[in-house]
Amino acid sequence: MTVLAGVGAPGATVDPPDHRGSWIPTGRMITTRMMELRRRRGLMVALVLVNIGIPAVFLIVRLLSHAFAPKTYGPAGGYDVFTNLVAGVMFIFGFIVAATLGCTAGSIDLTEGVFRHLVVTGRSRLALYLARIPAGLAIVVPLVAVGFTIVCAVCVFAAPTTLSYNGINVPVGLSRSGLDAFAAQHSHEIVCDFPFNGPMPVNVNCGGPGPGGGTIVQVNPKTGAALPGVSSARSVRAQAIRMVNQDYADYRSHFLYPSTSLMIKTGLWIELEATIGFIVGLGLASLMGQRTVPVILMIVLELILTPVLTHSVIPHLINAQRGVVGLAMSHLEPGGLPSPFNGGGGGGGLRQLVPESTTVAVCVVVAWLVVWTALGAWRMMTRDV
Question: Do residues 171 and 47 share a domain?
């Protein structure tokens, strides 16, 4: 007679529960996905070059140029360098390389012919897909953070000591009355170099031809004829004060170096942009089953479609335009940055042509993350072995 040991009987062994069917990815699955991506040497080099190499090389060249020829080349850091690097390089190209990594992660099993082997192990297909999200973000997020930290450090510690505004060294952070007092002391330079929207009611010799040179003449508003003579110092001071009052709002938007709050908000903003690029690329590549076409589509979206739809209002498709994630990210841009698409989300670029509230922008970003994750996971679960 054969006796079977029951559960709980002396000497009986209990098999550990089998979690292979769980949709929650394990740490080993995430680590394996990460190692698969890191073995792509060319892709990793591109990620490092774009997120760290380009900003670092640009800043090193500026540091060396200023060190050897300080009168010819300005300081390597500062507010303007920070905004141009972040909005012009890290935001746009960071999205593209993150999307390329996502497209690779979404198609690597198919291109390498191992999808069948993963399925026969009994692992949940949903878990296999979801494991790629933390694996890819564990690569992208630190690289963006390192490159952004380098930019912040140089822009703060190598910032100029004086603010050059319209070609004149102006103290930073003056109140309106303080700027008026500065204008009264430097009225001649203000009148010659500052922009002014309106008639110029003074005659000032600015020292020759070219920008800021020649003679600024007073014009009779009735006849349009130039009035003779050179204006008195009192008239020039009054005009200089009027000019700086008109330019005060623009002056207040210029700083020697970015503030701590701006750097924190900007860092989170570009990290979110890279996250969107990776997750959308992952879902698109999984949906299409390849990498090349999704990468091209992501580049077209970032460099062509988003700028066009940001500036051009299509009356019957305006709600569809509001659903573009690039437009939503432009609206979420921290104040004080020039918009990467010149849309003016941060107050530094042109006025945004397509209106959108912050709430709608947040909903659009969340929708893109959720929908593309769902589409990629659905295709992963329904694909034939």
Answer: no
Flag whether the pTM goes above 0.85: no
Q: Are 204 and 150 part of one and the same domain?
A: no
In sequence order, what DSSP letters do the residues of 203-226 get, joined into one string?
-EE-SSSSTT-SEE--B-TTT-PB
Average pLDDT of span 306-320? 82
Collapsing DSSP states into helix, strand and coil, what is residue 134? Answer: helix
Task: Name which of 43-57, 188-202, 212-226, 366-380 the model is least confident about.
Answer: 212-226
pLDDT digits 0-9 by tens, 77-124? 888 889 889 988 899 999 999 999 999 998 888 777 776 666 666 678
Domain shared by 61 and 120, yes or no = yes
Which 8-state DSSP code applies to residue 345? T
The pLDDT value given to residue 347: 39
Report, as an integer, the average pLDDT of 248-268.
83
Residues 148 and 229 in one domain: no
In order of 220, 259, 281, the CA distances from 225 in angstroms are 5, 48, 64
CA 363, 369, 370: angle at the middle one, nearest 5? 85
Looking at residue 214, what is its pLDDT?
41
Residue 375 — φ and ψ, nearest 5°?
-65, -45
What is the residue range of 279's domain?
Answer: 27-161+256-305
Closest to 228 in 3D by CA, of 219, 236, 240: 219
Domain assignment present for residue 18? The answer is: no
- 31 and 93 co-located in one domain: yes
CB-based contacts of 308, cutoff 8 Å, min separation 6: none
- 31 and 168 share one domain: no
- Listing DSSP states for 90-102 in one string gives IHHHHHHHHHHHH
Same domain assignment for residues 36 and 140:
yes
Whether 192 and 100 share a structural domain: no
Count Cβ atoms within 10 A of the Cβ of residue 94 and give its class: 0-12 exposed, 13-18 middle, 19 or more buried: buried
Write down the pLDDT at residue 362.
94
Point out the domain boundary residue: 234, 251, 268.
Answer: 251
Residues 140 and 314: their CA atoms lie apart, in Å, by: 35
Which H or E element spans position 170?
A: strand 168-170
Q: How many domains does the chain have?
A: 2
